[in-house]
Specification:
The protein has seven helices and two strands, in the order H-H-E-E-H-H-H-H-H. The chain has a two-stranded antiparallel ribbon. By secondary structure, the protein is mainly α.
Length: 129
C-alpha cells in the first residue's frame, strides 16, 4: 500500500468527493483513520478523551502506515476554526505515539514504516515542508 500511495490517494478521493466538508463526517473519517493505527486512538467530539488512564497510553501500533492516511486527511480539511482544532488534535495523537515513553512500542513501528521517506517524498508530503 505504501509503494502505491494508497493512503494519500484515498484521502484525496474523500476530499474530492466532499466527504470532509461536513464537520461530523470529518470527525468520523479521522476517527476511522486513527482506529486503523490502533483502536484506542479515538477523538471524542474532536478531542482526546480525558477519561483515558496513563496505562492506556502505552499502545502498540497496529498499522503504522495508516499515519499517512491521518496526515492526508487533516491537510485536506476545509479551513475553519473547528477543522483546525480537529486537525491539531489528530496531529497530537500522532505525536503522542512518538513520545519517549512509547519508544519500545509505537516509535519503533513508526520509524520502520517509512514515514520519514513519506514526509520527504515529492509525491506525498514534501510540498508541505
Amino acid at each position: 500500500l505504501r509503494n502505491y500511495g494508497f493512503y494519500i490517494e484515498f484521502a484525496n478521493a474523500m476530499s474530492e468527493a466532499g466527504v470532509l466538508l461536513d464537520l461530523l463526517n470529518a470527525r468520523a473519517v479521522i476517527n476511522m483513520a486513527l482506529e486503523i493505527i490502533h483502536p484506542k486512538l479515538v477523538l471524542i467530539d474532536g478531542k482526546r478523551s480525558n477519561s483515558e488512564s496513563k496505562a492506556q497510553d502505552n499502545i502498540n501500533v497496529h498499522n503504522a502506515d495508516a499515519v499517512r492516511l491521518v496526515l492526508g486527511i487533516v491537510i485536506r480539511l476545509p479551513e475553519s476554526q473547528s477543522n483546525v482544532s480537529l486537525a491539531k488534535n489528530a496531529f497530537d495523537e500522532i505525536l503522542r505515539l512518538c513520545a519517549n515513553d512509547m519508544a519500545g512500542s509505537s516509535l519503533t513501528r513508526l520509524a520502520s514504516s517509512g514515514l520519514c521517506s513519506s514526509l520527504t517524498n515529492p509525491n506525498e508530503f514534501s510540498q508541505m515542508l
